[in-house]
Amino acid sequence: MTPRHFLSTQDYSRAEIDALLAQAAEFKRSPQGQQMAGKSIALVFFNASMRTRTSFELGAFQLGGHAVVLSPGKDAWPIEFDLGTVMDGDTEEHIAEVARVLSRYVDLIGVRAFPKFVDWSVDRQDKVLAGFAKYATVPIINLETITHPCQELAHALALKEHLGDLSHKKYVLTWTYHPKPLNTAVANSALLIATKMGMDVTLLCPTPDYVLDERYMEFARQNAEENGGSLQVSHDIESAYRGAHVVYAKSWGAIPYFGRWDEEKAIRDANRHFIVDEAKMALTDNGLFSHCLPLRRNIKATDAVMDSPACIAIDEAENRLHVQKAVMASLIATASGARSGLGF
Ligand code: CP
């Protein structure tokens, strides 16, 4: 039987997301448990991590379980490897064997693989994560690929802690400058979770070329319709910030320029004024600011914003620990045939 994975929050109903957040809040109040006693998780990081790795390792420990960290290029796939070929057998080891072997050892597998080899114009599939989900016989957790669902839960929990009911709160996801284009995972995810929570979401970006991938825009439109919120795109900084309850910042590349970053650079450089600063935050309704971290200070957001009481990025980062414990505990319970206690 195919296990239930945690690949995307789109695979989970609003009620299931709310149940995970409630369980996470309970773990925040009472951190120790035995939900993973005798169980283990393998964490496969194709890309570096500080927060995700630390919070998953500690989370498993606090639930009585054990985490094994694998770094392709060093542990799995010990030779020179290309993320683009681990699915087609053109490397020393195919993902099919890695997923199946790990499934014999551990109870959960987490995978981080930024899609830097994906050509967005012809092939937008999240192949590495999909490969693990195809071949593994234990649940797979997305540790950040084309989306970052664990970050979504941590973000939502932090917003609920500060704002209570999120329905119709004005949420601005703003593009910010960065010297190099970054992947869109967290930006896609911000749209998904904010619309799932019924917020009135504005995607603020310099030009139409920076609107996010249509797949995620469409998911967000569906979420808004199902959960009573809204989604709009704006290129006007002042009107987007005015009255906002939440400003979330992220850098990403313009999709039509994917792989042609030298051409995109002029547009990016011309939009450094998208930085989140005190003047823009003063337009909000005592708005909160957050970011998934890491963040380049005074490039994406000023010191003044980062060090202000409005900034809840550290709360969000802390919540990674609590929400991931809820995800691991529910997947372990579901896979072992027990009800998770979360209604699924
Ligand atoms: N936000 C986040 O996932 O951080 P890391 O890259 O440090 O894991």
UniProtKB/TrEMBL annotation:
Residues annotated as carrying N6-carboxylysine in the record are: 300
State if Amino-acid biosynthesis is listed as a keyword: yes
Pathway(s) where this gene product acts: Amino-acid biosynthesis; L-arginine biosynthesis
Name the source's superkingdom: Bacteria
Q: Where is this site: Key residue in conferring substrate specificity for N-acetyl-L-ornithine versus N-succinyl-L-ornithine?
A: 92
Localization in the cell: Cytoplasm
Give the EC class as a word.
transferase
Q: Which family does it belong to?
A: Belongs to the aspartate/ornithine carbamoyltransferase superfamily. AOTCase family.
Q: What is this protein called?
A: N-acetylornithine carbamoyltransferase
Native organism is Luteibacter sahnii
Its taxonomic path starts at: Bacteria, Pseudomonadati, Pseudomonadota, Gammaproteobacteria, Lysobacterales
